[in-house]
Amino acid sequence: MASTVLTKTPTAGNRLKWTFSTWFKFKSGGQCIFGGNQDGNNYNVLQFSGTSQIDFLNVTAGSVDARLITNRLFRDSAAWYHVVAVWDSANASAGDRMRLYINGVEETSFATDTNPSSSLNSIINSANELSVGGYAGGSNFNG
């Protein structure tokens, strides 16, 4: 159901390193797959953009401080996709601090490629609400 969102508010954990993995099908762009939300100015989200790209971003104090938007478009609504989003801001290599894997292959071509600064805390694991299929203030996943 498009209106169903799974949420949990965990205890605080590692905000420098985490991985999210899921299988999904989708119906159209502009929808949240996974998110962590402190408030409207501090959140992480993995979503489809309105142009059928995958968008993985972190917002702190209302500013986007890390973001990957794929060049590749995802439009096959009959296909299953496996996505892995990796946050590792403790990594010495800036290009390895955020990574996306689609169907077991690392995405390396991005329309937007803004890596987090070294040791930037994400909202994920900050004892704030985590959501699968949507997030507070975002569009619920329709797939």
Write a structural description.
It is a single chain. This protein has 143 residues and is mostly beta strands. The chain contains no helices and eleven strands. It has strands at residues 6-8, 17-24, 31-39, 42-48, 54-60, 63-70, 81-88, 98-102, 105-106, 110-114, 129-132. The chain has a seven-stranded antiparallel β-sheet, with no helix packed on it. Strands 2-7-8-9 form a four-stranded antiparallel β-sheet, with no helix packed on it. It is globular and about 35 Å long. The chain starts with 5 loop residues before the first strand and ends in an 11-residue tail after the last strand. 27% of the residues are buried.
Tally of individual helices: 0
| Count of DSSP strands | 11
Distance between the termini: 8 Å
Global Rg: 14 Å
Average of pLDDT: 83
- SSE string: EEEEEEEEEEE
Q: How would you sum up the global shape?
A: globular
Largest sheet: 7 strands, antiparallel
Structural class: mainly beta
